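Here is the promised in-class demo. Please do not try to memorize the tokens; focus on the logic of going from shape to residues.
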């Protein structure tokens, strides 16, 4: 699930566990009265559901939804096409509790990030059949249970419209309707300036930031986000299948320069990121990245001049400028880098996921559950491991970190995995991006939430 999809789903689906701005995760009382570990061996979690919670088809949220989702995402039924089975693969049983509103989940192995599961929670009606699971949400949003309900999905216009749900049992939504709109990167700032949209996620687009900052009716809201920029290297084929060449890329990069180039004009502190699992300020964060060493990079290449295909999204000036700077830095070490623009909406699915690249830059989103969220990115065969390579030692460390019910021990193991990943040089962290969101100044309770989840029912115009 990408970030844009999650924005929509937070408005219409249950997210039983929610995060505050500090990353502390607790039950959302609109969906859960309580959720806790009631037994440590075997690990057993009891969920007590809000009895008022209902799907839009009239059925209650219950055991059947948890059970269907646990099965579909477990990885044990290959008919279901999933990106990651992390956590769900560790579930042994989902059963009814002592009342219709109680669900008991028993784990076959300990899973420390159990709070990350079932958020969002999907209805059993869309999780039992593999075909519905895979295609049922592509052209329709069939069932909902949130402060808003879907009323229109127009792929041609690139819009999803949700409306206040009169059947919502929580605090009534202040907005009557929200329309999510897909726009090309080059058109977004203009659409915001022309009042065609009320909110613009600036991201790293300097031009959009400067334009929005100059609008008297707009405000830039900012937070320290969990969004981190990186270079992913194709370690399965091509020139970067050679570990020495990957190490040469790492040492040829001037990550400080890349951070300054990307962040200085956004009025953000230009700091590099030194971890793949934690962002600056999170417990466990350690900067393990090496200093630049062009001479060592050249030595590792041994006089060779590898040709690298760097895939970039077309039409995005900021990403083009970043890629040209990477091209220049790697060129100093002896690499010949070809920039290959591709359609932005095809970058991941048609190029990165298929291994049709040597270098690519994009962002991962960190958060409160680094062990479970990032395992599929770094584990051998992980559904989001686009490097095409894995490492048995990293796999062991990630597995142990994910199973630890002691947060301090889990963080220690992730730092050990990170040290190993720096040596492997397959995913190279660059910098942590600030959350920069331009909004109509009249909008309240929306903007840059940091690690917090938005409460869609509270969003409104002053």
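The designed amino acids, position by position:
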């Amino acid at each position: 699930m990408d970030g844009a999809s999650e924005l929509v789903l937070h408005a219409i689906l249950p997210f039983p566990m929610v995060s505050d701005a500090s990353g502390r995760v607790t039950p959302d009382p609109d969906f859960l009265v309580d959720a806790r570990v009631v037994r440590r061996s075997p690990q057993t979690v009891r969920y007590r559901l809000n009895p008022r919670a209902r799907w839009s088809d009239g059925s209650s949220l219950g055991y059947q939804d948890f059970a269907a989702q646990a099965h579909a995402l477990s990885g044990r039924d290959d008919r279901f096409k999933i990106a990651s089975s992390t956590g769900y693969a560790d579930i042994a049983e989902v059963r009814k509790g002592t009342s219709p509103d109680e669900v008991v989940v028993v784990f076959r192995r300990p899973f420390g990030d159990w709070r990350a599961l079932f958020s969002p929670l999907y209805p059993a009606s869309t999780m039992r059949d593999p075909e519905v699971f895979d295609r049922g949400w592509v052209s329709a949003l069939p069932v909902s249970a949130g402060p808003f309900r879907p009323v229109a999905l127009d792929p041609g216009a690139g819009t999803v419209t949700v409306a206040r749900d009169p059947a919502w049992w929580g605090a009534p939504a202040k907005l009557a309707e929200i329309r999510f709109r897909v726009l090309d990167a080059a058109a977004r700032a203009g659409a915001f300036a022309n009042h065609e949209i009320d909110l613009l996620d600036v991201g790293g687009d300097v031009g959009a930031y400067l334009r929005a900052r100059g609008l008297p009716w707009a405000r830039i809201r900012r937070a320290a986000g969990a969004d981190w920029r990186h270079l992913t290297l194709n370690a399965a084929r091509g020139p970067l299948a050679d570990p020495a060449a990957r190490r040469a890329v790492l040492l040829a990069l001037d990550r400080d320069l890349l951070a300054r180039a990307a962040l200085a004009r956004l009025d953000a502190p230009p700091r590099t990121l030194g971890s793949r699992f934690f962002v600056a300020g999170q417990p466990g964060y350690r900067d393990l990245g090496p200093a630049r060493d062009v001479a060592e990079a050249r030595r590792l290449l041994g006089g060779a001049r590898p040709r690298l295909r760097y895939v970039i999204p077309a039409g995005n000036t900021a990403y083009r400028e970043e890629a040209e700077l990477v091209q220049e830095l790697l060129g100093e070490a002896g690499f010949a880098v070809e920039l290959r623009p591709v359609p932005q909406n095809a970058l991941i699915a048609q190029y990165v996921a298929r291994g049709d690249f040597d270098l690519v830059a994009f962002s991962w989103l960190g958060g409160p559950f680094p062990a479970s969220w990032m395992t599929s990115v770094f584990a051998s065969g992980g559904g989001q491991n686009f490097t095409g390579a894995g490492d048995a030692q990293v796999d062991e460390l990630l597995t142990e970190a994910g199973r630890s019910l002691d947060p301090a021990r889990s963080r220690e193991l992730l730092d050990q995995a990170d040290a190993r990943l720096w040596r492997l040089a397959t995913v190279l962290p660059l910098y942590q991006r600030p959350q920069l969101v331009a909004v109509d100044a009249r909008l309240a309770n929306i903007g840059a939430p940091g690690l917090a989840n938005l409460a869609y029912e509270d969003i409104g115009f002053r």
